[in-house]
Design goal:
The structure holds two protein chains of two kinds. Chain A is mainly β. Chain A has one domain: Neuraminidase (6 Propeller), CATH 2.120.10. Chain A contains two helices and 28 strands. In chain A, strands 1-25-24-23-22 form a five-stranded antiparallel sheet, with no helix packed on it. A five-stranded mixed sheet of chain A has the order 11-12-13-14-18, with no helix packed on it. Chain A has a four-stranded antiparallel sheet with strand order 2-28-27-26, with no helix packed on it. Classes of the chains: A mainly beta, B mainly alpha. Chains A and B meet through loops of A and helix 3 and helix 4 of B.
């Protein structure tokens, strides 16, 4: 090989290297925080670096993202204009009257919920800002207030599904509109009770190809307190009750506040005259997660980045516990399904290490239309930056 | 009788004067506690469920603050820490609504 050739090859290598560095720099100049574990064969990248810690997220078919935050009343719109995988263009899509909990793309409209209201919006000129906002269920038509006041939203077959959880821990509030899933027509009328006995389900999702409504319900706190568990010593509460993955059916009762997990009564209600009847009519969870792990987000995988056996499996974002002696949760897991039934669970991303050091609090998970992987929001505010992560399979 | 009333007024004044005010350090500590323990559900400025803190009856706010500090925050607060937290919560949105 003569010198001329050597110089040519060397130049090509140099150009290739610089081009690669430049592309990476365009994607994001931030690094993934340390302390995050990712399952072997998969990798995390930064999809968005939002101003506010992101909570719930939705994606339009063109890949545009919309997400809420507990730190602002603003819904952010994020676009990846140069299609490099990093959403560099962030705009204030809409500033609501109150903090926004849930956002949902449906048939060209962005819907969002506050604790006591549901709105739909349109961006008619495509500038990333809502220019048409309608209160479908305005304040006053839905319960509002504290406690578990998160409000999920699902739209299916011309009906709106929404709920609000317990006002405390195990409140007996049978005549309240809380602890129930309600459905409405698309104009916010024709209110119908869908399911009851729910403690705190923050997201409702459809299983692909079906009309089945699924959600993760947070288990109650202080299970063992009645029999002596205390903050200093809580062997019972540490492991009970489980987080519940439920398939919500019309007219179904899911046990709360009387029954947990596999039809086990809470000690506080053990002397209730109809406790056996309540247990009998409780629909048991399809799957159970770690106690107090705070299962905020859930999705069914429909993408094509992960190997094909992932299709139809669920992913769950566990925000992390407070009611355990040692922290639990703080991870995104895959729940394996066969014939529409879960049969196993394994972690894909952990924001907690073996010494219980916490590196993040995942909230929501969605399919990423662009990459075929999944997007994970994280609102722990433990680092200098807020991130929405993308999980993809490492390609060989 | 006259002297008795004067003494009562005097000591009431003394007791009131002795009631401990929250110091800037205690307030700062409450702010830090809120950021470490409360933001995961309420946002760093208490926007989630916190907008009405300043409008709440003192008794109700006290009850709620105690519940949260002993409960989800897993703290064992002293009386002055509870008071400092209440003051911090009131400060969060009192000028924004």
């Amino acid at each position: 090989m003569n010198n001329k050739y050597r110089i040519k090859i060397f130049s090509i290598i140099l150009i290739a290297l610089f081009t690669k560095c430049d592309t990476d720099a365009q994607k994001s100049d931030k690094n993934i925080p340390t302390g995050i574990w990712v399952r072997s064969g998969y990798e995390l990248s930064i999809a968005v670096n939002p101003k506010y810690p992101p909570r719930h997220i939705t994606q339009a078919p063109d890949g545009t993202l919309y997400f809420s935050s507990l730190d602002s009343e603003i819904i952010t719109c994020a676009k990846d204009k140069d299609s490099d995988g990093y959403y560099e263009s962030l705009t204030e899509y809409h500033k609501a009257k109150n903090v926004v909990y849930y956002v949902l793309w449906d048939d060209g409209e962005i819907w969002f919920t506050e604790s006591g209201a549901i709105y739909k919006t349109n961006d008619t000129n495509g500038d990333g800002k809502a220019d048409d906002v309608t209160a479908v269920l305005p304040n006053g038509k839905l319960p509002d207030g504290g406690g578990h006041a998160w409000r999920p939203l699902l739209i299916n077959n011309g009906r709106i599904y929404t709920s609000m959880g317990d006002s405390g821990n195990i409140s007996e509030e049978p005549n309240s509109e809380r602890q129930k899933i309600w459905s409405f027509d698309m104009n916010g009328n024709d209110k119908k009770l869908f399911a009851s006995g729910i403690r705190n389900t923050e997201k409702l999702v459809l299983r692909p190809g079906t009309n089945e409504i699924w959600g993760m319900d947070h288990g109650s706190d202080w299970f063992g307190r009645k029999v002596g568990d205390s903050r200093e010593r809580q062997p019972i509460t540490d492991n009970n009750p489980p987080e519940e993955m439920n398939k919500y059916v019309e007219g179904g009762f899911y046990g709360h506040p009387y029954i947990v997990g596999n039809r086990l009564p809470r000690y506080e209600y053990i002397d209730k005259n109809d406790i056996i009847e309540l247990a009998e009519k409780t629909i048991v969870p399809e799957w159970m997660g770690g106690a107090h792990w705070a299962s905020n987000g859930m999705m069914f995988y429909t993408g094509d980045n992960f190997s094909s056996e992932h299709k139809g499996d669920a992913f769950v974002a566990y925000h992390g516990s407070w009611n355990r002696s040692k922290p639990g949760g703080y991870q995104v897991t895959r729940v394996l399904f066969e014939n529409g039934k879960p049969f196993g669970e394994k972690a894909y991303v952990k924001f907690i290490d073996e010494d219980y050091k916490i590196a993040g609090r995942p909230v929501d998970v969605i399919n990423d239309i662009k990459s075929g992987g999944i997007l994970i929001t994280e609102d722990g505010m433990l680092h200098d930056n807020n991130f929405i992560y993308r999980l993809t399979e490492k390609k060989k | 009788m006259k002297y008795f009333i004067i003494i009562i007024i005097f000591y009431t004044g003394v007791i009131l004067a002795q009631e401990k005010k929250i110091t800037p350090e205690e307030f700062k500590k409450a702010e830090l506690t809120f950021k470490q323990k409360c933001t995961r559900c309420h946002g760093s400025e208490g926007r989630a469920f916190g907008k009405n803190f300043a409008k709440m009856e003192k008794k109700e706010l006290r009850h709620l603050t105690e519940d949260m500090m002993f409960g989800p925050a897993r703290l064992n607060p002293t009386e002055s820490e509870i008071k400092a937290m209440i003051e911090y919560l009131i400060s969060l949105h009192s000028d924004k609504d």
